Amino acid sequence: MKKRLSHLTLSLFLFSGTLISCSNSPLVETEIIEQLVVHESKGSNTIVPTESIPHLLFNSGIRSILLDSKGNMWFGSHQDGVCKWDGKSHTYYTKKDGLSNNQVRTIQEHADGSLWFGTGNGISSFRNGVLKNETQKMLGDAYLNVTWSNYPTDLWFHTEDRKGAYRYNGKQLEFLPFPASKDKTDGSSYLITGISKGKSAIWFATYSGVYSFSNGVLNLINNESLGLDAQKGIMHVRSILEDSKGRLWIGNNGIGVLVDEGSGIYNFTEEYSLKSPNGFPGGNDSPEGTLEHVFSIGEDQQGNIWFGDRDTGVWRFDGTQMKNYGTADGLPQAMIWDIYMLPNGKLLFGADDGGVYQFNGDSFVRSY
How confident is the model over 34-93, as pLDDT tens digits? Predict the structure, then answer.
């Protein structure tokens, strides 16, 4: 019997903008070659392989993955910038090449062909081989009076210094503010940790809650609306996904996964007995067999939901059962930053060791 949390979402704003559902799927299909090879350096920032696909030369984890419309694979790192694999060579870009910051949390492509990188300090665009810091010109208040709306080609990004979200509308980058919250635990809620475009809403995960924008209304799910407190465990959201069935999955750093299937929000981690025996550990390490620090969530073509846990590796939910994968299954260690599905249905997992792993049905093999 699922224990439902009091799902009292707070309607905060009403806007005249039109909401249209949109897809974040890659545009073309490419073959993934599962061959580990040696590479050699040539030029200042280009890696030319001696055979097939070499390993990425990152010293930090993979935070983001994208297959663009030209068939290039892009990989964003935690500290080392971004890399493009064009099928022949790797090209690396960092702050010295115009990237606003070397931590690349999201990579997106607009319908106009431009690429956009959400970094640890600013948003950068990539057009005709040129990187540009798009947030430098937004330091004042010139872009604050923007009407909330959501169109199919809009791209959305997190902010670091403002309580709201950035949006690229095909012409310019805009800032859209979140409303003030009465919840005293919302001190850092402006820090967006994940964005998911659903069938009828766009979801913004923040450290202390989830904002949604749908049908002109901006809503908030937070500790107050769910009846959570320090004793029960509070929200600290690090990942979010609206799946193909319309279910909302909220991955937290401490209280595990919350799910809304349409009849109210419940704690998925507790429902499947994946909570630590001595209660939620907050920022402390969790033991094996638990699902409490969820930094990435993805869905495959079969409708399975995948979770990347900070401490306990990868989990797969088939709708009935949970299965856990770890180092014995080919993963380098526990931490998985990103889960990305290719058009051919294969999943890529961005790991904390700087590699990208592919699930072959039984185990994980490093592909990049």
Answer: 222 222 333 345 444 334 578 999 999 999 999 999 999 999 999 999 999 999 999 999
Task: Give the chain's count of helices (H) and strands (E).
Answer: 2, 31
Sequence-distant (≥ 6) Cβ neighbours of residue 246 within 8 angstroms: 198, 199, 262
Q: Which two tokens stand for residue 193?
A: 């940790």
| 58's tokens | 């990152």
Q: What global pTM score does this model have?
A: 0.85
In the block, tokens 């080919």 appear at 330
| pLDDT of 10 | 43
Work out the number of other CB atoms within 10 angstroms of the CB of residue 177.
Answer: 17
Q: What is the pLDDT of residue 160?
A: 76
Instruction: Residue 170: name the closest of 181, 184, 160, 156 by CA.
Output: 156
Measured between alpha carbons, how far is 62 from 103 in angstroms, rounded to an integer?
Answer: 10
* Per-residue pLDDT at 136: 67
Residue 108 near residue 119, CB atoms below 8 Å: no
Q: Could you give all domains of the chain from N- to C-terminal order, each with its CATH number?
A: 37-149 (2.130.10.10)
Q: For 276-296, what is the mean pLDDT?
A: 87
Backbone angles phi, psi at 57, to 5 degrees: -100, 50
Cα–Cα dist 305/10, whole Å? 28
pLDDT at 2: 64
Concatenated DSSP letters of 341-363: E-TTS-EEEEETTS-EEEE-SSS
Instruction: Give CA separation, 262 vs 13, 192, 208, 237, 259, in Å.
Output: 22, 24, 21, 20, 9
Calpha distance 37→318 (Å, rounded): 34
**Residue 264 to residue 250: CA distance in whole angstroms:** 13
| 3-state SS assignment for residue 152 | coil
Q: How far is CA 191 from CA 106, 148, 172, 206, in A?
A: 14, 18, 22, 5
- Percent of residues, the chain, with pLDDT higher than 70: 80
Q: What is the pLDDT of residues 240-250, one digit of tens each?
A: 999 999 999 99
SS3 content of the chain, % helix, strand, coil (to 5): 5, 40, 55
